[in-house]
Automatic annotation (TrEMBL), chains A, B, C:
Tim10-like domain residues: 22-82
Domain notes: The twin CX3C motif contains 4 conserved Cys residues that form 2 disulfide bonds in the mitochondrial intermembrane space.
Keywords from the UniProt entry: Chaperone, Disulfide bond, Membrane, Metal-binding, Mitochondrion, Mitochondrion inner membrane, Protein transport, Translocation, Transport, Zinc
A Pfam family recorded for this sequence: zf-Tim10_DDP
Function statement: Mitochondrial intermembrane chaperone that participates in the import and insertion of some multi-pass transmembrane proteins into the mitochondrial inner membrane. Also required for the transfer of beta-barrel precursors from the TOM complex to the sorting and assembly machinery (SAM complex) of the outer membrane. Acts as a chaperone-like protein that protects the hydrophobic precursors from aggregation and guide them through the mitochondrial intermembrane space.
Keyword Manganese assigned: no
GO BP: any one term: protein insertion into mitochondrial inner membrane
Protein name: Mitochondrial import inner membrane translocase subunit
Protein's membrane topology: Peripheral membrane protein
GO cellular component, one term: mitochondrial inner membrane
Keyword Secreted set for record: no
Automatic annotation (TrEMBL), chains D, E, F:
Family: Belongs to the small Tim family.
Signal peptide: none
SUPFAM superfamilies per UniProt: Tim10-like
Tagged with keyword Protein transport: yes
Key words, A-Z: Chaperone, Disulfide bond, Membrane, Metal-binding, Mitochondrion, Mitochondrion inner membrane, Protein transport, Translocation, Transport, Zinc
Source organism per UniProt: Allomyces macrogynus (strain ATCC 38327)
GO cellular component, one term: mitochondrial inner membrane
Any Gene Ontology biological process: protein transport
Subcellular location: Mitochondrion inner membrane
Name of the protein described by the UniProt record: Mitochondrial import inner membrane translocase subunit
Domain Tim10-like: 15-78
Amino acid sequence: MSFLRAAGGQSMEQSQMAANLAMAEREMEMMGDMFHRLSQLCHSKCISPRYLEEHLSKGESVCTDRCVAKFFDVSAMVGKMLSDRGEAMAAAAAAMPQQ
Amino acid sequence: MSFLRAAGGQSMEQSQMAANLAMAEREMEMMGDMFHRLSQLCHSKCISPRYLEEHLSKGESVCTDRCVAKFFDVSAMVGKMLSDRGEAMAAAAAAMPQQ
Amino acid sequence: MSFLRAAGGQSMEQSQMAANLAMAEREMEMMGDMFHRLSQLCHSKCISPRYLEEHLSKGESVCTDRCVAKFFDVSAMVGKMLSDRGEAMAAAAAAMPQQ
Amino acid sequence: MDFSHLSQQEQAHLQMVVEQNQIKESMRIYNTIVDRCFTDCIKDMTSSALSPKENTCVKNCVNKFLKHSERVGQRFTESQVLMQQKQMEEGMAS
Amino acid sequence: MDFSHLSQQEQAHLQMVVEQNQIKESMRIYNTIVDRCFTDCIKDMTSSALSPKENTCVKNCVNKFLKHSERVGQRFTESQVLMQQKQMEEGMAS
Amino acid sequence: MDFSHLSQQEQAHLQMVVEQNQIKESMRIYNTIVDRCFTDCIKDMTSSALSPKENTCVKNCVNKFLKHSERVGQRFTESQVLMQQKQMEEGMAS
């Protein structure tokens, strides 16, 4: 973030701004990563690897729609389980060696 | 790029230099990533996972050569298709959620 | 490392400090990556993907213990083979755990 | 994502970041397509040239990949909108 | 890892880095679990809602994943300790 | 890659970047080998020690991996050179 660095002394607003931007950037990156994973998973589940046709078949289209819906359901479920465990999650992070 | 930062006011040449370096660095990184993917793909296609021998067999060697050639052909073909669609590619990027 | 940048002229101790921190950070990141790979590999080797039960079975537990032991053995073996050959390779092996 | 809470200067900077992101995203799509279509279509290593069959397979694979991504993108966006509405309603209710 | 050779200021900074690392690590664990449990448990695409069977499978998958990680973590830490002891002994001997 | 258009100072900096890159690259190779050889060679979990058969398998796997990488590298470099020549010729022709 070169323009931030250029901006001499870091005032209160500037560091707030930097924090906002950093968060927006991270959010964008996370969205991109999620979309990538989702696409990969649903491609594997729904697209036949024989490629006799360049269009999505009816079956492939419907499968894709359902796959996306289920992916979000599973994501929400896992997210809830992890936050319910709160500490267990911290434990999982603590199982991470050498902090 | 700490030495660039150290260099007080950013003159025209300096920012040009930074841009050159950044591009060279990115190019190097891309080359490394491509080589890694290529090696992985051709290992999967050509190397028998039984490892009875430490040398490449004649068949594995020839397979590897052809695999590399085909990888570049497929890469070029995909690259051409994507740039021909130009906009379709932009569409693919636009399919990326919420920019 | 913004606080380092803030710290005006870079004294000898400061650049030493930066180097120490950078190394500690890299070490931490490497540990995290290694733990991730190890977990993934041993999950594939030991955990049945049918999930009829939420607890680790006796067999899965024992398998996991042995899997971790074997992973370290293979890592050490590969590290030794790489450092025995070539100098460029040796740098990598030296950076690795199991020094 | 809603960025209306950002200042004008922030939005200008974000614009630049978004563009860099798109380049990176395009590279990722390109690499993903090559990996997927190479893996699925290239089976025959008796020649170093692509066979007509492999050629057709790669073409279909690329087109199908893009159509699939587009469809996933549509569903993805819809889900995001739904989730945001739900969050807003919950916000109102409380 | 032993960080006692770092200065106090370094340790404060490291603390911050460690925290950021934990967030990144948690995200990685979350993504890995979703990918693994989705791949292993979601087989039936005749409906867009999770079946009771899929539901149970995901629950078991998540819990088993966490227990497995914990066990790997224990063995991992033990191995690290052993290696460090060995290194110290070798250091003494020389 | 041709870097002759860079200034001397740029080349010195690039040198450093190249070295850091090599370390990262070496780490990636090391990790890739361990993952591949562990996956392909370690099948038997009835003991926590490597069997002689597993031992031999890992040795062959590592050596074969390196020989394969080397061969891919040769073909890769040749292709790069060919492509640059082609680009130069096209540049001349236009």
